[in-house]
Amino acid sequence: MTASATRQIAWVYDLNKCIGCQTCSVACKVLWTREEGEKHEWWCSVNTMPGLGTPKGWEEMGGGIDPKTGKPRAGHQPTRGEFGGGFDYNYYEVFYGGTAGKAHLEPQAPREGRWAMNWDEDQGAGEWPNSYFFYMPRICNHCTNPVCLEACPTGALAKRDDGLVLRDEDVCMGDRFCMEACPYKKIYFNYERRVAQHCIGCFPRIEAGVAPACVRQCPGRAVFIGYIDEEGSAVNNLVKKWKIALPLHAEAGTGPNVFYVPPLSPHRLNDDFSIDYKTPRIPPEYLESLFGPEVHTALATLSSEMEKVRGGGTSEMLKTLIAYKWQELLGPFTVDPADIVPTV
Amino acid sequence: MKVATVNAGADLADPASQAWSGVTAEAVALAPVPLAAQPTEYIREAWANRAYGKTAEARVAAATDGKKLYVRVEWADDAAPNAEFQDAVGAVLGDGPLDTLGSAASPVTLWYWENGRGALNLVSKGPGVVTKGDASAVGGTGANSGGKWAVVVSGPASASKGKLGVAVWNGSNEERAGLAAVSRNWLSLE
Questions:
Q1: Which residues from chain A sit within 8 angstroms of residue B177, using beta carbons?
Q2: Which of A128, A239, B25, B65 is spaced 20 to 30 A from A200 at the CA atom?
Q3: Interchain contact, B46 vs A71, CB within 8 Å
Q4: Full 3-state SS string of A106-136
Q5: Is there a contact between B115 and B90 (Cβ–Cβ < 8 Å)?
Q6: pLDDT at B107 over 80
Q7: Which residue in A136, A138, A160 sits closest to A149, CA to CA?
Q8: Does A75 contact B at CB distance below 8 Å?
């Protein structure tokens, strides 16, 4: 078991470009979580924010590291019901049951308390005409201080030299302290195989020079990957140089390595439907609750760069974010998966 | 503790079998595995103010048919089941420290049985610090009725001359890994 890495793979999701299409979620799902006990597992998921997300209410479930004491904080282990999903559907009844026009596809689970990944899609918050929401993809944060790793009594978790936090499922006993300790609640329990599971950063692809499925499949060109400490890389520029990509809930103290370009938003409308140019639709204090006080500077930087370009100037930052060439999103992992020669 | 010798063919694997009616069970006092011995800071912090290992007593019996050692453990548990964590029991064998379920220097063997999961053959180097061994070497069957668990775990008869302890996990209290009640003293099998 190791807890440090010499390099660190990082993701940057541009929330101004994420369209909530779930292609990343499905790309991950079909690649990694189609085996027994994995129906409800979505190692990559996109949720509407503000929202309860998955597992339901995860932001209130504790975990992480106490900034005052430096010690791990107790957390709640998300239950099967809080993750929800993994439903069976009444396909037979709809397609072969002679119930045309009467039966419709419906989860075969009690309606009361039903929940699933992306269950509260597009609900958001605020009131018309100033309602608002945005989409936020989430994966394991492959933290610099992985509290999941520390919590595990069997030493099943390790931080690789490239920064990915991986689990040896043969060593995992399913004790689920990792799930309690993780402040992002992005670890699932496989009730069939009695092991916990989480995003593996597509490490077999990484090792072959191929970007993770969630990155390569994104139709919105909304996600970047690369080594955070490699100067000149897109992720380094966005996070360290321009400081417009921020960690989610950094106060949890685990040093997440998934970063987000925060969402700009339209102006609010006044009661007479005139535009309040001073007030963004998404409350800045809400964004601060997610991304910390640096979010205000990041948004201001984004706005001023956009103004610059509108005025005829150029912006390396916006060129990077636009990603005219989609391979630029992939960092060093540009190999086409079709070109991989299987070794087993 | 006397290991009863039972005729081959007796169904010792079944805790409800008549074969156990003639085997004397011994009341064994249990105590929680110490918090300070829990292997990770997270566990010590998260459980600092939570009671665990409250199962105070178990009745333990041992028998062999010459091929396997069977350990029958019975304890009271009428708590509502927990959907996430299951009740479990382990026969502890070996020579390491019992109160911490072994240590790195002196591991113990756990013939572990968990409701819904079956039997596992574990090497334990401390509370919850376990590695999986050959599960085919061990067996386990359990049933809960009338607010009591009765479980039989079994393994090679070669363990019949060693020392025996038991550990109990209360699933309704989210007990797992080192969060257990373990017998206070070794029983010497003879």
A1: 153-154, 173, 175, 177
A2: A239
A3: no
A4: CECCCCCCCCCCCCCCCCCECCCCCCECEEE
A5: no
A6: yes
A7: A160
A8: yes
State which residue of chain B sits closest to A195, comparing Cα positions. B117
Query: Smallest Cα–Cα separation from A174: which of B17, B4, B120, B35?
Result: B120
Burial pattern A299-332, b for ≥16 Cβ within 10 A else e, equals beebeebeeeeeeeeebebeebbebeeeebbbbe
Domain spans in chain A, listed from the N-terminal domain onward = 9-84+119-339, 85-114
For residues A173 and A167, give the distance between their C-alpha atoms in angstroms, rounded to a whole number: 11
Contact A150 B127 (CB under 8 A): no
Residue with structure tokens 């409250």?
A: B54
Q: Which fold has domain B4-188?
A: Immunoglobulin-like (2.60.40)
Sequence-distant (6+) residues with CB within 8 A of B166 are B28, B30, B58, B60, B71, B73, B89, B90, B91, B92, B182, B183
| CA closest to A182 among chain B residues | B42
Cα A328 from chain centroid (whole Å): 20
Annotated domain spans of chain B = 4-188
> B108: Cβ–Cβ under 8 A, 6 or more apart, which residues?
B92, B93, B94, B95, B96, B98, B101, B102, B123, B124, B165
d(CA A272, CA A293): 32
- Closest residue in chain A to residue B47, using alpha carbons only: A74
Rounded to two decimals, the pTM is 0.95
Question: Which residues neighbour A67 within 8 Å (Cβ) at sequence distance 6 or greater?
Answer: A251, A253
Topology of the domain comprising A9-84+119-339: Alpha-Beta Plaits (3.30.70)
CB A137 within 8 A of CB A13: yes
Each residue's pLDDT tens digit, A109-155:
888 889 999 999 999 999 999 999 999 999 999 999 999 999 999 99
Write out pLDDT tens, residues A79-95.
999 999 999 999 999 99
* Residues B38 and B165: beta-carbon distance below 8 Å: no
What is residue A344's predicted lDDT score, i.e. its pLDDT?
64
